[in-house]
Design a protein that fits this description.
The chain is α+β, with helices and mostly antiparallel strands and about 210 residues long. It has one domain (about 5-210): Class II aldolase/adducin N-terminal domain (L-fuculose-1-phosphate Aldolase), CATH 3.40.225. About 40% of the residues lie in helices and about 15% in strands. The protein has helices spanning about 5-20, 75-85, 95-105, 120-125, 140-150, 170-190, 200-210; strands at about 30-35, 40, 55-60, 65, 90-95, 130, 155, 160-165. Strands 4-3-2-1-5-8-7-6 form an 8-stranded mixed sheet, with helices on both faces. The two termini are about 25 Å apart. It holds the Pfam family Aldolase_II. Catalyzes the decarboxylation of 3-oxo-tetronate 4-phosphate to dihydroxyacetone phosphate (DHAP) and CO(2). Belongs to the aldolase class II family. AraD/FucA subfamily. GO terms for molecular function: aldehyde-lyase activity; metal ion binding.
Length: about 210
């Protein structure tokens, strides 16, 4: 895929997130790793429903701003993920309703925010560790994500929302959407007796999909 095609794909996916209520106002940011080793990222203060391909920020993996509008202050944690996990080719961070609500709960398991009741989150991302709360833009978010990056595909920032990686922007998008669906199930079923997947069932899924 050419850089121009990747620019257009990011704009299309961002608009879809906005139109379906996964993002509001100027919240959330996306990025993708280009073949030349730089990344495209959504600019600071931008609405995901109103992006233009030429406005996207182009940034080196060292954090140097090359072109386009000024990148989001949160691009630093995107860079931490790319630099610490060579398999990461795209990052999606949104404030979508159910995952953000989950991130605000007390006493989440720091090693995995959601006990799975269906196979799909396990298949797509596996465990979802929780990063402690820091104000948006704080460098410590990137430090924590960088430490976790080699071992996980997705993360939940406490009182903030999800950060999800993928081997393409479409893959990261699908991962995010599956996680949001799982979080919706979590809140739908919270007052009901739930048959969660067993440790053996989870291990079988991990073996099949994360080899």
């Amino acid at each position: 895929m050419t850089e121009q095609q990747q620019r257009q794909e990011m704009v299309t996916i961002a608009r879809s997130f906005y139109q379906r209520g996964y993002a509001t106002g100027s919240a959330g940011n996306l990025s993708v790793l280009l073949d030349d080793g730089a990344i495209l990222a959504t600019p600071t203060g931008s609405c995901l429903g109103e992006l233009l391909p030429e406005d996207l920020s182009k940034v080196t993996l060292d954090g140097n701003w090359l072109s386009g509008k000024k990148p989001s202050k949160e691009v630093s944690f995107h860079l931490a993920l790319y630099n610490q996990n060579p398999a990461c080719r795209a990052v999606v961070h949104l404030h979508c309703h159910y995952l953000t609500a989950l991130s605000c709960l007390n006493n989440l398991n720091p090693e995995n925010a959601m006990t799975p009741c269906t196979p799909y989150v396990v298949m797509r991302v596996g465990d979802i560790p929780v990063v402690p709360y820091f104000r948006p833009g704080d460098a410590q978010i990137g430090e924590h994500l960088g430490e976790l990056a080699p071992h996980y595909r997705a993360f939940l920032l406490a009182n903030h929302g999800p950060v999800v990686t993928g081997n393409t922007l479409r893959d990261a998008t699908d991962n995010l959407e599956e996680m949001e669906a799982a979080a919706r199930l979590f809140f739908t079923l919270e007052t009901w007796p739930v048959r969660y997947l067993t440790a053996e069932e989870i291990a079988t899924l991990r073996s099949a999909y994360h080899a």
